[in-house]
Design goal:
It is built from 21 helices and 8 strands. Helices cover 47% and strands 9% of the residues. Helix 7 links the parallel strand 4 and strand 5. It has an 8-stranded parallel barrel with strand order 1-2-3-4-5-6-7-8, surrounded by 5 helices.
Length: 447
């Protein structure tokens, strides 16, 4: 029997986050919003991830207004966002009252599907966001952050999928942020999840290694229901496979998407013009099979290079690439996704540039080894842990249990700036950027 494959289009979020430093403006999105809505996508990923930060920091935009404006034009296609569990769209854990309010407001403002992940696959860091999203009436897509290591295998991912199902997930996403998932392994994992949970399975792969289109095809044959793709101007490299390519590939199979290739080509022409108009932020488009050796996602590679360049030490590039897997192993093999990619990568750079491993330790690394980000996937040598954190207490409780509620205090802090409830959340997530934005908004007479 034929089975239609769903396509989640990432052009409005991950695609330009991967290849254009998340610099696409809302006005550029609105110009083709109705045409995107007419394609027949499973969903449009257009919010979350780094978009919130970038709207405030670089584009002088209110991220909540981006969501509302797009929802006004996109009526048929579900809008989707990426949420970092207890980290929301920031880089640290936030109190439960903030997480609940954020999820409520995201759904209220127009988000239909909330893709929720935790960098350590620690389900304790997902539970509040999952419950809050369901309470708000949103679709919970719970994530497996995929990586390769001695402590990650098909059985561990299958157990995680069953736990996510028990927590109330409406669908499961395998999030392959570094492009490490091979076609054969994808078949095994998809089949296990489908057999164990009966939930829809979506696959999110980055093209970095070059394997993603082959992985998608085999995963679909094994039962994967939806794949993430990007229109070709913002596809490939460290982004996703091209929408047009996957649509054409599947059109000749029993898994056809049913999408109109000519309409996709029209949209691609538009986004090519957007890319050409902002060339200064466009990353070099290239595949990097070295990720299969070092397991470093594309965005992390560029950050590492920037850190070395700032030190005038680009000649130490190879040493840093080799140091990252060592630091990761010592840290219990965390998946290299935000914020763990930054923590591991920064420490690897420090180890190389100082010439002495762990002579300088970042605060974030210490917090991680103290349990403040959650439970590491693998065991950590106690002697190594003590060498970094000393005699400080290691916690075993859910990290957010240690946090005081945050909404009431924040509301008092910015009382004179508030124009809507969402402003309080914006301030909690990015205080400095939010205050600067609120000041500009007031001067412009909008607040």
């Amino acid at each position: 029997m034929s089975r239609k494959t769903g396509i989640t289009e990432t052009i409005l979020r991950d695609a330009h986050q991967s290849l254009m430093a998340t610099r696409m403006r809302t006005d550029d999105m609105l110009e083709v919003a109705e045409k995107l809505d007419s394609v027949g996508y499973h969903s449009l990923e257009m919010w979350g991830g780094a978009t919130f930060d970038t709207c405030l920091r670089f584009l002088n935009e209110d991220p909540w207004m981006r969501l509302r404006r797009l929802k006004a034009f996109i009526k048929k296609t579900p809008l989707q966002m990426l949420l970092r569990g207890q980290n929301l769209v920031g880089y640290r854990h936030y109190p439960d009252d903030v997480v609940r309010k954020f999820c409520q407001k995201a759904v209220e403002n127009g988000i239909d599907i909330v893709r929720i992940f935790d960098a350590l696959n620690d389900t304790r860091n997902l539970e509040v966001a999952v419950r809050a999203t369901k309470d708000a009436g949103g679709h919970v897509q719970a994530c497996i952050a995929f990586t390769l290591s001695p402590v990650h295998d098909v059985d561990s991912y299958a157990r995680l999928a069953k736990e996510l199902s028990r927590m109330g997930a409406d669908s499961i996403c395998i999030k392959d942020m570094a492009g490490l998932l091979s076609p054969a392994l994808a078949v095994e994992i998809v089949r296990r999840i489908k057999a164990d949970t009966s939930l829809p399975v979506q696959l999110h792969c980055h093209y970095t290694s070059g394997m993603a289109p082959m992985t998608y095809l085999k995963a679909i044959e094994a039962g994967c229901d939806v794949i993430d793709t990007a229109l070709s101007p913002f596809a490939f490299g460290s982004s996703q496979p091209a929408t047009e390519v996957m649509v054409a590939t599947l059109a000749e199979t029993e898994f056809s998407t049913g999408l109109d290739l000519s309409l996709l080509n029209e949209l691609a022409e538009y986004f090519e013009r957007i890319k050409e108009a902002d060339r200064e932020h466009v990353a070099p488009l290239k595949m990097n099979p070295a990720v299969l050796t070092y397991q470093i996602p594309g965005g992390m590679l560029s950050n590492l290079r920037s850190q070395l360049a700032a030190q005038g030490m680009l000649d130490r590039w190879r040493e840093v690439l080799e140091e990252v897997p060592r630091v990761r192993e010592e840290c219990g093999y965390p998946p290299l996704v935000t914020p763990m990619s930054q923590i591991v990568g920064t420490q690897a750079v420090l180890n190389v540039v100082t010439g002495q491993r762990y002579a300088v330790r970042s605060k974030e690394l210490k917090d991680y080894l103290k349990g403040l980000y959650g439970t590491p996937p693998g065991p950590i040598d106690e002697e190594f842990r003590r060498s970094v954190v000393g005699d400080e207490e290691v916690i075993t409780v859910r990290p957010a249990d240690l946090l005081e509620p945050g909404l009431e205090k924040a509301e008092q802090d910015i009382k004179r700036y508030i124009t809507k409830e969402e402003d309080v959340l914006t301030y909690i997530l990015f205080p400095d950027q939010a205050l600067a934005f609120f000041e500009r908004r007031q001067k412009a007479g909008c607040g």
